[in-house]
## 1
Amino acid sequence: MEEKANFLESISYPLLFLTIIWGVKIAEILSGLNLGFLGILPRHLAGLPGIIFAPLVHGNVYHLFSNTGPVLILGTTIFYFYRVVAFRVLIYSWIITGIFVWLAGREAYHIGASGLIYSLASFLFFSGFIRKSIQLVAISFIVLFLYGGMIWGILPLREGISWETHLMGALSGIALAFIYRSHGPQRKKYSWEHEDEESRGEVV
């Protein structure tokens, strides 16, 4: 029963975020507005608000659809397995990725939640290996299996795709995996390891 409650709580956060970004797109379509100006415009003061608003805006419905599944899966995973640091990782992924794109991106409007997605995927992948937990490493391999193809997204291979946002998101995720390596779930220590630590502590 507790596991079910934890899962429902974990999935509620990405669902809330998806409700917001779909609401933004529907409002944009109904009003006939183009909210692309709310994206990040690198090295322009007018582009600074995009650090906050860019993940909420998508170029078209296909763009939004392509981000919906990863947001739901990766968001639920991080809130379920990394509950203690999930909100911090989410917020810092959002802000740090946006700042990096503003500093280093091409002079064009960068929009969409893909930077956040890359950061969460990167965090989940590297965090499992850093913590050396069998369960978390298994999650790392699942993320690799599901989203390993995302690696091509950090290269400037397709015109009209903000590879800078993908790259900066991935780098943010790696950094956060190291920063929060001692917070949240840790590898289970076995009795023989505790005994070994105690014996080393007795050496003068």
Note: The longest helix spans residues 2-31.
## 2
Amino acid sequence: MIALRFQIGSATGTRHSNGLTPRGRESKMRRFALPLALAALVSACALPDSQKPASRAALADASLPAAKAFSAPRPQPPQRANRDIARDFLDLHFRLEGGTTLPVFTRFERPIRLRVAGTPSQGFQRDLTQLLQRFKQEAGIDIQRVNSGPVEITVQAVSSRAIHRALPKAACFVVPNVDSLAELRRKRRNPETNWSNLRHRERLAVFVPNDISPQEARDCLHEELAQAIGPLNDLYRLPDSVFNDDNVHTVLTGFDMLVLRATYAPELRTGMSRSEVAAKLPALLSRLNPAGDAIPPRALPATSRSWIAAIETALGPGSALNTRKRAANQAVVLARELGWSDHRRAYSHYVLGRMIQAEEPDLAQRHFQTALDFLSQTPDSALHQAIIRPRMAAYQIARGDGEAALQQINPALPVASRHENAALLATSLLIKAEALDLLGQFATAHTVRLDSLGWARYGFGPDWAVQAKIREVAELRPSTN
């Protein structure tokens, strides 16, 4: 069974015949980067070149700086009760996304050796080194990179085309008991590659494309390596984790590292049943996360399959736009009928807003605001809010209201930085620059645009993609004719 993430069209995925609901990842930086240049968002069009600030026109055609990189990670410790975390741990480890129950707990029972094969993309080596350091320091996992000899994990950097030939809808994926795409092709229907048959972790391969943006490659590393050594499930109810099909988080969080630290705690071992692990977790989590004992439980209800199906249809490939809109509206209705008031209710409104934004921008704004209203009452939702704000700010830019756009976009900037989301940060900075231009603050706008470029190189990749993003955001400005 292959855990994967979608490259286009879906935030969750479709169920495969092998019984696993895919990890459900479109190329998420492309999704978070909005897109913002929606010609029908409002009656917006590009300013004539003669009316554009010279700095903006020049940036779109100039050579660009090197990609910026985030400094030391700043994960926030989990802010939830240990009782809730114990439930999450069990559901992450003993279920697959399609609902299959796993009979035993598995992990690597010896030090993990990792080898990189293929031709990694720009920035890959740095991001991998930083991630392995996080595994060691934050999760206490004995993992090291080697250049030769037997290994437990092979990370193979190959082209997107090679990955699509293996799995047409996958951006990157992890498979047990293989170490190359050639071996995967030979063992495609072999029970050894089915996660539900796994009873021991001995050898796995992670396949990452080498022709995507640095941030997308990093995100693949974080999620797929975490799955290779830890939980196999995703849960929509988690507000603070990459193990969530809403794809809000792009790097492993404090919660994720706690789950991985608990996974490799001496109290646990491969072969334990769910009840055996459950009996160990209270004392184990008290030892690893004593602050969680003082937090009152806030157990969120399980996510209904009907809501998941609606979200999958709304964001998935293969459906007409009207079908996707109906599914998004159904998700909103279901979330309301289920009595949710957490991030999943907000996500429903966000998805519907995205679906209707081009044709009904005013109504879309109301859905985005409703999402923010629910998130304002939800712990651990700062990043969720930051992802919505650029869409709301873009609407204000298109209306020519620079002050309102600044009010929307400014709160997103420190959040995007703290969560290492360069695409979100770059897009937000470009929107802020447009807002400043509207207010006549051209020098400040130029400085902000320059600051966006290095982040855009990391978040979007090649020069043409960055230049296209600059033009997209610029075209939000209303015509003065």
Note: The chain has two domains: 3-27+80-294, 31-69+303-474.
## 3
Amino acid sequence: MLSKFVNKIYPILLSETRKKQFEKFIFFFAIITFIIHFILIVLARVNNISSFNDMNGRIVDPIAAIYTPFSIILLYEIYLLIYYLPKSITIYLGKQYEIIALIMIRKIFNNLSNLSVAIETPDRLQINSLLLTFAGLIILFLLIFFFYKLSGNKPARVDESDCKDYKSRRFFLIKKIMAIGLIILFAILFARSFLELRNVSSVHIINIVSIIQKMNNTFFDTFFTALILMEVLLLLFTFDLSDKFSKVIRNSGFIVSTILLKISFRTEGLLNVCIVLVAVAFGVAILGIYKLFEKKL
């Protein structure tokens, strides 16, 4: 009964067709929001509209408009994360790392736009912080490459028919239920964040970035908390399939990596970059050692 209900709901929310439709929607939505944000900034620069300036009366740099579409693209990455949860745990975790990388790129664009309109010459601390973020992004990109390299080219599981036995099919069904729960949570958090825009009293352009940033911090903090709880449940359910030491450590390590990523949302600057790199490096190391265990055994 439950299996039939889940298999009826799941394709509506997370099928390949739905994924392509959502991809098209995000593509056009990102372009539209970028154009609107950019036009507002251009109008402010041309007509010197004070209400479109930042809180200090400075005109916002057009580079700041990039922040908005990147925030929209992040929504698609979250959808992909949920989409791959039942199919592949490693790809699912890899999508978490991709989300963090996009957030870091978005921060770089925001910092660059702030520096480009700064009245005073940037001090050494600001420049060093930006350069360290650049270096952190490169290292993060490299770590994500190694993570996918270690995960191999194993095709993602498509449906229960790809499972070998009853226990595997039941575990796949459980992951489907979790994915449906996450997509519902995703929709609720997105709707709540969108409704918060109604409480904005001013129309300063700089508020667009700060409001999105505040919404995202709340969104990702809550969402990653849900991911941690889901991963703990997955760890418990995997004991029904296998109690191999290497798999227990691997799945536990992935949970630790996700927890560190959640902590990173509450930090700024160099500390944020360090925590993100440690989280991803830990995930890569755990996967690498797990692969060595599998070859040895």
Note: The chain has a mean pLDDT of 79.
## 4
Amino acid sequence: MAYPDWISLNDRLPEDGQRVLCKVPGNSVFLPGKTGATEQREVVIMRFAKDFFLKNPSKTGYSGPSHFWLGEGTSNRFFVEVTHWLPLPLV
């Protein structure tokens, strides 16, 4: 699926360490509390970690792309889970 104005990871990657809006189709997050309730949040802010797994050899057992997305809280994502990104607006 195409997202107007969103940048595909196939076209360009963010700068290493850059915080961006990420499109994560089907992303489900747990709501506060211990009820187990979830909510779909397909757009989240994350920091791009270029070559994360190459720079952190202690992270063994993963054979996918070397990049990673660092989220806020427990929202880290593997590179293949994110499809598109946008720079955060300057304020």
Note: The chain has one helix and eight strands.
